[in-house]
Amino acid sequence: MKTDFLILGGGLSGLISAAYLERANKNYILIEAQDELGGTDYGLKCVPAHSDILENPLIKLKRDLNLNFNIQTLLNPPLIFQNKTGFSDFTGFAVNNKNRALLDELSYYTQSPRLLVSNGWKTLNDELLKIIPTQKIKTKSVVTSLNFNHGKLESVTINGETQIQANTFAYALPLTSAKALLGKEALSAKFLQKFDRMQKFTVLSVDFASKKSHFTKDNLLVFNDEDFFMIGQFNSENSELSSWLSLIDSELAQDEEAVSKTLKTMKKHIKKAFPNLIEEASWERILVVPESHHSFIDLPQSGPELWFLGSNCIEGSQNIAASIKSSQNFVAKLTHCN
Ligand SMILES: Cc1cc2nc3c(=O)[nH]c(=O)nc-3n(C[C@H](O)[C@H](O)[C@H](O)COP(=O)(O)OP(=O)(O)OC[C@H]3O[C@@H](n4cnc5c(N)ncnc54)[C@H](O)[C@@H]3O)c2cc1C
What we know:
30% of the residues lie in helices and 30% in strands. The longest helix has 18 residues, at 256-273. It folds into 2 domains: 1-41 and 122-198 and 297-338, 3-Layer(bba) Sandwich (FAD/NAD(P)-binding domain), CATH 3.50.50.60; 77-111 and 199-293, D-Amino Acid Oxidase, Chain A, domain 2, CATH 3.30.9. The strands form 3 sheets. Strands 5, 6, 12, 13, 14, 15, 16 and 17 form an 8-stranded mixed β-sheet that branches. It has 10 helices and 18 strands. The structure holds flavin-adenine dinucleotide (FAD). Flavin-adenine dinucleotide binds at residues 9-14, 31-34, 39, 42-47, 109, 142-143, 172-174, 177, 203, 205, 245, 289, 310-311, 318-321, 323. The site of flavin-adenine dinucleotide has 35 residues, from helix 1, strand 12 and helix 10.
Protein backbone atom coordinates (compact mmCIF):
# COMPACT_ATOMS: atom_id res chain seq x y z
CA MET A 1 0.00 0.00 0.00
CA LYS A 2 1.31 3.48 -0.81
CA THR A 3 0.16 7.04 -0.23
CA ASP A 4 1.62 10.55 -0.51
CA PHE A 5 1.10 11.56 3.12
CA LEU A 6 0.83 9.15 6.04
CA ILE A 7 -0.36 10.71 9.30
CA LEU A 8 0.51 8.68 12.38
CA GLY A 9 -1.87 9.38 15.28
CA GLY A 10 -5.47 10.57 15.20
CA GLY A 11 -5.35 13.02 18.12
CA LEU A 12 -6.03 16.71 17.58
CA SER A 13 -2.84 17.29 15.55
CA GLY A 14 -3.42 14.27 13.30
CA LEU A 15 -7.04 15.27 12.64
CA ILE A 16 -6.16 18.88 11.90
CA SER A 17 -3.43 17.84 9.46
CA ALA A 18 -5.80 15.43 7.71
CA ALA A 19 -8.52 18.09 7.43
CA TYR A 20 -6.10 20.62 5.89
CA LEU A 21 -4.74 17.97 3.47
CA GLU A 22 -8.29 17.06 2.48
CA ARG A 23 -9.09 20.69 1.69
CA ALA A 24 -5.90 20.81 -0.40
CA ASN A 25 -7.07 17.71 -2.34
CA LYS A 26 -4.11 15.61 -1.25
CA ASN A 27 -3.69 11.87 -1.13
CA TYR A 28 -3.25 10.75 2.50
CA ILE A 29 -4.07 8.08 5.11
CA LEU A 30 -4.61 8.71 8.83
CA ILE A 31 -3.60 5.93 11.24
CA GLU A 32 -5.07 5.67 14.76
CA ALA A 33 -4.62 2.91 17.35
CA GLN A 34 -7.99 3.38 19.06
CA ASP A 35 -11.56 2.95 17.86
CA GLU A 36 -12.26 6.63 18.34
CA LEU A 37 -10.43 9.64 16.99
CA GLY A 38 -9.48 12.83 18.78
CA GLY A 39 -7.06 11.54 21.44
CA THR A 40 -8.02 11.62 25.10
CA ASP A 41 -10.70 14.06 26.22
CA TYR A 42 -8.64 15.72 28.89
CA GLY A 43 -11.18 18.01 30.55
CA LEU A 44 -9.64 21.40 31.17
CA LYS A 45 -8.59 22.83 27.84
CA CYS A 46 -7.85 26.47 27.32
CA VAL A 47 -5.40 28.10 24.98
CA PRO A 48 -3.59 31.33 25.87
CA ALA A 49 -4.77 34.01 23.49
CA HIS A 50 -1.35 35.70 22.98
CA SER A 51 -1.16 39.32 21.96
CA ASP A 52 -2.17 39.13 18.28
CA ILE A 53 -5.52 37.40 18.54
CA LEU A 54 -6.00 37.04 14.76
CA GLU A 55 -2.78 35.07 14.56
CA ASN A 56 -3.96 32.63 17.22
CA PRO A 57 -3.78 29.07 15.82
CA LEU A 58 -7.27 28.19 17.08
CA ILE A 59 -8.87 31.23 15.44
CA LYS A 60 -6.89 30.63 12.24
CA LEU A 61 -8.07 26.99 12.22
CA LYS A 62 -11.72 27.99 12.52
CA ARG A 63 -11.30 30.57 9.74
CA ASP A 64 -9.17 28.46 7.34
CA LEU A 65 -11.43 25.40 7.44
CA ASN A 66 -14.67 27.28 8.04
CA LEU A 67 -15.46 25.17 11.11
CA ASN A 68 -18.57 25.58 13.19
CA PHE A 69 -17.58 25.80 16.86
CA ASN A 70 -17.76 28.57 19.44
CA ILE A 71 -14.70 30.26 20.81
CA GLN A 72 -15.09 31.89 24.19
CA THR A 73 -12.53 34.41 25.40
CA LEU A 74 -11.82 34.44 29.13
CA LEU A 75 -10.38 37.80 30.03
CA ASN A 76 -10.27 37.55 33.80
CA PRO A 77 -6.78 37.00 35.15
CA PRO A 78 -6.05 33.84 37.15
CA LEU A 79 -6.74 33.87 40.88
CA ILE A 80 -4.98 31.99 43.60
CA PHE A 81 -6.80 30.52 46.57
CA GLN A 82 -5.15 30.86 49.97
CA ASN A 83 -6.71 29.14 52.93
CA LYS A 84 -6.81 32.23 55.14
CA THR A 85 -7.44 35.07 52.74
CA GLY A 86 -9.56 33.40 50.05
CA PHE A 87 -9.02 34.37 46.41
CA SER A 88 -6.47 36.95 45.37
CA ASP A 89 -4.54 37.83 42.20
CA PHE A 90 -2.15 35.12 41.07
CA THR A 91 1.39 36.35 40.58
CA GLY A 92 3.21 33.12 39.71
CA PHE A 93 4.55 29.99 41.30
CA ALA A 94 7.33 29.95 43.87
CA VAL A 95 10.65 30.17 42.01
CA ASN A 96 12.64 27.97 44.36
CA ASN A 97 10.44 24.92 43.93
CA LYS A 98 12.27 21.80 42.81
CA ASN A 99 9.54 20.83 40.37
CA ARG A 100 10.49 23.68 38.07
CA ALA A 101 9.60 21.81 34.85
CA LEU A 102 6.13 20.99 36.07
CA LEU A 103 5.59 24.56 37.13
CA ASP A 104 6.67 25.80 33.70
CA GLU A 105 4.04 23.55 32.18
CA LEU A 106 1.36 24.79 34.59
CA SER A 107 2.41 28.40 33.99
CA TYR A 108 1.38 27.97 30.36
CA TYR A 109 -2.22 27.48 31.42
CA THR A 110 -2.19 30.39 33.81
CA GLN A 111 -1.50 32.99 31.16
CA SER A 112 -4.32 35.37 30.54
CA PRO A 113 -6.44 35.99 28.50
CA ARG A 114 -7.39 32.52 27.29
CA LEU A 115 -9.55 30.95 24.61
CA LEU A 116 -11.85 28.01 25.11
CA VAL A 117 -14.06 26.01 22.76
CA SER A 118 -17.15 26.79 24.78
CA ASN A 119 -19.39 24.12 23.31
CA GLY A 120 -16.73 21.52 24.10
CA TRP A 121 -13.58 20.30 22.37
CA LYS A 122 -15.53 17.31 21.10
CA THR A 123 -17.38 19.75 18.82
CA LEU A 124 -14.05 20.64 17.23
CA ASN A 125 -13.26 16.93 16.69
CA ASP A 126 -16.69 16.35 15.15
CA GLU A 127 -16.27 19.32 12.82
CA LEU A 128 -12.88 18.02 11.65
CA LEU A 129 -14.33 14.54 11.12
CA LYS A 130 -17.01 15.98 8.83
CA ILE A 131 -14.19 17.02 6.48
CA ILE A 132 -12.15 13.80 6.50
CA PRO A 133 -13.68 10.93 4.47
CA THR A 134 -13.89 7.70 6.49
CA GLN A 135 -12.10 5.70 3.80
CA LYS A 136 -8.97 7.77 4.46
CA ILE A 137 -8.97 6.83 8.17
CA LYS A 138 -7.67 3.56 9.58
CA THR A 139 -8.68 3.05 13.22
CA LYS A 140 -7.62 0.10 15.41
CA SER A 141 -4.31 0.40 13.59
CA VAL A 142 -1.35 0.46 15.92
CA VAL A 143 1.93 1.72 14.47
CA THR A 144 4.32 -1.03 15.52
CA SER A 145 7.46 0.01 13.65
CA LEU A 146 8.91 2.69 11.44
CA ASN A 147 11.10 1.21 8.76
CA PHE A 148 14.23 3.08 7.74
CA ASN A 149 16.54 2.36 4.84
CA HIS A 150 19.94 4.09 5.03
CA GLY A 151 18.49 6.63 7.46
CA LYS A 152 15.49 7.43 5.25
CA LEU A 153 12.01 6.55 6.48
CA GLU A 154 10.34 4.42 3.81
CA SER A 155 7.38 2.67 5.40
CA VAL A 156 5.43 2.03 8.56
CA THR A 157 4.22 -1.31 9.88
CA ILE A 158 0.69 -1.47 11.26
CA ASN A 159 -0.41 -4.09 13.81
CA GLY A 160 2.84 -5.96 13.21
CA GLU A 161 1.87 -7.02 9.69
CA THR A 162 0.69 -4.46 7.11
CA GLN A 163 3.24 -2.10 5.60
CA ILE A 164 2.30 1.29 4.26
CA GLN A 165 4.77 3.32 2.19
CA ALA A 166 4.56 7.06 1.83
CA ASN A 167 6.48 10.04 0.47
CA THR A 168 5.91 12.06 3.65
CA PHE A 169 5.21 10.87 7.20
CA ALA A 170 3.71 13.04 9.93
CA TYR A 171 4.57 11.80 13.44
CA ALA A 172 1.62 12.87 15.63
CA LEU A 173 2.02 10.10 18.22
CA PRO A 174 2.87 10.75 21.86
CA LEU A 175 6.46 11.65 22.56
CA THR A 176 6.63 8.69 24.96
CA SER A 177 6.67 6.31 21.95
CA ALA A 178 9.43 8.19 20.13
CA LYS A 179 12.37 6.28 21.55
CA ALA A 180 10.92 2.83 20.83
CA LEU A 181 9.55 3.68 17.38
CA LEU A 182 12.21 5.99 15.98
CA GLY A 183 15.25 4.60 17.76
CA LYS A 184 18.81 5.35 16.76
CA GLU A 185 17.90 5.69 13.08
CA ALA A 186 16.16 8.99 13.58
CA LEU A 187 17.25 10.23 16.99
CA SER A 188 20.72 11.50 17.84
CA ALA A 189 22.67 10.11 20.80
CA LYS A 190 22.30 13.53 22.44
CA PHE A 191 18.52 13.36 22.05
CA LEU A 192 18.34 9.83 23.46
CA GLN A 193 20.39 10.86 26.47
CA LYS A 194 18.18 13.88 27.11
CA PHE A 195 15.08 11.77 26.61
CA ASP A 196 16.10 9.43 29.44
CA ARG A 197 16.71 12.38 31.75
CA MET A 198 13.40 14.06 30.96
CA GLN A 199 10.99 14.49 33.78
CA LYS A 200 7.93 12.32 33.35
CA PHE A 201 4.61 13.27 34.82
CA THR A 202 1.04 12.11 34.96
CA VAL A 203 -1.98 14.36 35.07
CA LEU A 204 -4.82 13.74 37.48
CA SER A 205 -7.96 15.39 36.30
CA VAL A 206 -11.31 15.67 38.07
CA ASP A 207 -14.37 17.10 36.35
CA PHE A 208 -17.67 17.93 38.03
CA ALA A 209 -21.08 18.66 36.59
CA SER A 210 -23.52 20.43 38.83
CA LYS A 211 -27.20 21.13 38.19
CA LYS A 212 -26.88 24.36 40.18
CA SER A 213 -25.59 27.29 38.23
CA HIS A 214 -24.31 29.72 40.80
CA PHE A 215 -20.63 29.06 40.13
CA THR A 216 -20.08 32.05 37.94
CA LYS A 217 -16.30 32.47 38.06
CA ASP A 218 -14.61 32.09 34.72
CA ASN A 219 -11.12 32.73 36.03
CA LEU A 220 -8.48 30.12 36.04
CA LEU A 221 -8.12 29.10 39.67
CA VAL A 222 -4.80 28.14 41.16
CA PHE A 223 -4.17 26.33 44.44
CA ASN A 224 -0.67 26.24 45.73
CA ASP A 225 0.78 25.06 49.00
CA GLU A 226 4.31 23.92 49.86
CA ASP A 227 4.38 20.89 47.58
CA PHE A 228 1.01 20.68 45.93
CA PHE A 229 -0.27 22.47 42.83
CA MET A 230 -3.61 22.41 41.21
CA ILE A 231 -5.44 24.48 38.64
CA GLY A 232 -9.13 24.60 37.83
CA GLN A 233 -11.59 26.27 35.54
CA PHE A 234 -15.32 26.87 35.32
CA ASN A 235 -16.80 27.12 31.90
CA SER A 236 -19.03 30.14 32.31
CA GLU A 237 -21.02 29.48 29.12
CA ASN A 238 -21.86 26.09 30.52
CA SER A 239 -21.92 26.58 34.26
CA GLU A 240 -22.65 22.91 34.84
CA LEU A 241 -19.01 22.10 34.23
CA SER A 242 -15.82 22.57 36.15
CA SER A 243 -12.46 20.91 35.53
CA TRP A 244 -9.51 20.56 37.87
CA LEU A 245 -6.10 19.11 37.36
CA SER A 246 -2.91 18.40 39.16
CA LEU A 247 0.39 16.92 38.04
CA ILE A 248 2.16 14.13 39.82
CA ASP A 249 5.41 12.35 39.19
CA SER A 250 4.85 9.40 36.85
CA GLU A 251 6.49 6.94 39.20
CA LEU A 252 3.96 7.86 41.88
CA ALA A 253 1.11 7.39 39.43
CA GLN A 254 1.71 3.63 39.52
CA ASP A 255 1.03 3.73 43.24
CA GLU A 256 -2.71 3.64 43.95
CA GLU A 257 -2.20 5.09 47.40
CA ALA A 258 -0.32 8.11 46.03
CA VAL A 259 -3.03 8.70 43.43
CA SER A 260 -5.86 8.53 45.94
CA LYS A 261 -3.95 10.79 48.33
CA THR A 262 -3.54 13.42 45.58
CA LEU A 263 -7.21 13.15 44.65
CA LYS A 264 -8.16 13.60 48.30
CA THR A 265 -5.98 16.71 48.53
CA MET A 266 -7.53 18.08 45.34
CA LYS A 267 -11.04 17.60 46.70
CA LYS A 268 -10.05 19.15 50.03
CA HIS A 269 -8.84 22.29 48.24
CA ILE A 270 -11.95 22.45 46.03
CA LYS A 271 -14.22 22.06 49.06
CA LYS A 272 -12.52 24.89 50.93
CA ALA A 273 -12.87 27.29 48.03
CA PHE A 274 -16.32 26.18 46.85
CA PRO A 275 -17.99 24.54 49.85
CA ASN A 276 -21.05 23.21 47.96
CA LEU A 277 -19.58 22.22 44.63
CA ILE A 278 -18.79 18.60 45.39
CA GLU A 279 -22.08 17.89 47.22
CA GLU A 280 -24.10 19.47 44.42
CA ALA A 281 -22.30 17.66 41.64
CA SER A 282 -24.53 15.37 39.62
CA TRP A 283 -21.52 13.47 38.38
CA GLU A 284 -17.77 13.48 38.65
CA ARG A 285 -15.16 12.07 36.32
CA ILE A 286 -11.65 11.18 37.34
CA LEU A 287 -8.94 10.70 34.74
CA VAL A 288 -5.44 9.46 35.37
CA VAL A 289 -3.79 10.45 32.11
CA PRO A 290 -1.04 8.13 30.84
CA GLU A 291 2.54 9.16 31.36
CA SER A 292 3.68 12.26 29.53
CA HIS A 293 7.10 13.71 29.09
CA HIS A 294 7.93 17.22 29.83
CA SER A 295 8.82 18.09 26.30
CA PHE A 296 11.29 20.95 26.40
CA ILE A 297 13.62 18.96 24.25
CA ASP A 298 15.10 19.55 20.80
CA LEU A 299 13.69 17.02 18.43
CA PRO A 300 15.36 16.30 15.11
CA GLN A 301 14.52 18.78 12.37
CA SER A 302 11.22 18.06 10.65
CA GLY A 303 11.36 17.10 6.95
CA PRO A 304 11.83 16.30 4.22
CA GLU A 305 10.06 12.95 4.68
CA LEU A 306 9.49 12.86 8.47
CA TRP A 307 7.61 15.66 10.26
CA PHE A 308 7.03 15.96 13.98
CA LEU A 309 3.64 17.29 15.03
CA GLY A 310 1.63 17.80 18.17
CA SER A 311 3.21 17.25 21.53
CA ASN A 312 6.53 16.81 19.75
CA CYS A 313 6.37 20.02 17.89
CA ILE A 314 8.43 23.11 17.38
CA GLU A 315 7.10 25.21 20.22
CA GLY A 316 8.40 22.72 22.75
CA SER A 317 5.45 22.60 25.08
CA GLN A 318 2.58 20.15 25.32
CA ASN A 319 -0.36 22.32 24.51
CA ILE A 320 -3.18 22.62 22.04
CA ALA A 321 -2.07 25.90 20.48
CA ALA A 322 1.31 24.37 19.67
CA SER A 323 -0.37 21.23 18.31
CA ILE A 324 -2.60 23.21 15.99
CA LYS A 325 0.25 25.44 14.84
CA SER A 326 2.53 22.50 14.07
CA SER A 327 -0.13 20.93 11.84
CA GLN A 328 -0.77 24.25 10.08
CA ASN A 329 2.97 24.73 9.42
CA PHE A 330 3.36 21.15 8.21
CA VAL A 331 0.58 21.39 5.65
CA ALA A 332 1.49 24.92 4.54
CA LYS A 333 5.11 23.93 3.89
CA LEU A 334 4.33 20.69 2.12
CA THR A 335 1.21 21.13 0.07
CA HIS A 336 2.81 23.47 -2.47
CA CYS A 337 5.57 20.98 -3.36
CA ASN A 338 3.69 17.66 -3.40
C1 LIG B 1 -5.24 16.65 31.73
C2 LIG B 1 -4.70 17.47 30.60
C3 LIG B 1 -5.16 18.74 30.42
C4 LIG B 1 -4.69 19.51 29.37
N1 LIG B 1 -5.15 20.77 29.25
C5 LIG B 1 -4.68 21.54 28.26
C6 LIG B 1 -5.11 22.89 28.16
O1 LIG B 1 -5.89 23.40 28.95
N2 LIG B 1 -4.62 23.63 27.13
C7 LIG B 1 -3.73 23.13 26.22
O2 LIG B 1 -3.34 23.87 25.32
N3 LIG B 1 -3.30 21.85 26.29
C8 LIG B 1 -3.74 21.05 27.29
N4 LIG B 1 -3.28 19.76 27.41
C9 LIG B 1 -2.32 19.26 26.41
C10 LIG B 1 -3.05 18.87 25.14
O3 LIG B 1 -4.14 18.04 25.45
C11 LIG B 1 -2.11 18.16 24.19
O4 LIG B 1 -1.01 18.98 23.91
C12 LIG B 1 -2.76 17.85 22.85
O5 LIG B 1 -4.02 17.25 23.04
C13 LIG B 1 -1.87 16.91 22.09
O6 LIG B 1 -2.54 16.49 20.90
P1 LIG B 1 -1.81 15.47 19.96
O7 LIG B 1 -2.68 15.24 18.79
O8 LIG B 1 -0.42 15.93 19.69
O9 LIG B 1 -1.60 14.15 20.84
P2 LIG B 1 -2.67 13.09 21.40
O10 LIG B 1 -3.98 13.72 21.68
O11 LIG B 1 -1.94 12.39 22.51
O12 LIG B 1 -2.88 12.09 20.17
C14 LIG B 1 -2.02 11.02 19.88
C15 LIG B 1 -2.87 9.94 19.20
O13 LIG B 1 -2.01 8.88 18.81
C16 LIG B 1 -2.64 7.65 19.09
N5 LIG B 1 -1.59 6.64 19.25
C17 LIG B 1 -0.73 6.49 20.27
N6 LIG B 1 0.15 5.49 20.02
C18 LIG B 1 -0.19 5.01 18.79
C19 LIG B 1 0.36 3.99 17.94
N7 LIG B 1 1.40 3.28 18.30
N8 LIG B 1 -0.22 3.78 16.74
C20 LIG B 1 -1.30 4.51 16.33
N9 LIG B 1 -1.83 5.50 17.07
C21 LIG B 1 -1.29 5.74 18.28
C22 LIG B 1 -3.41 7.91 20.38
O14 LIG B 1 -4.46 6.96 20.55
C23 LIG B 1 -3.92 9.33 20.15
O15 LIG B 1 -5.19 9.36 19.52
C24 LIG B 1 -3.73 18.98 28.47
C25 LIG B 1 -3.26 17.68 28.62
C26 LIG B 1 -3.72 16.93 29.70
C27 LIG B 1 -3.17 15.56 29.87
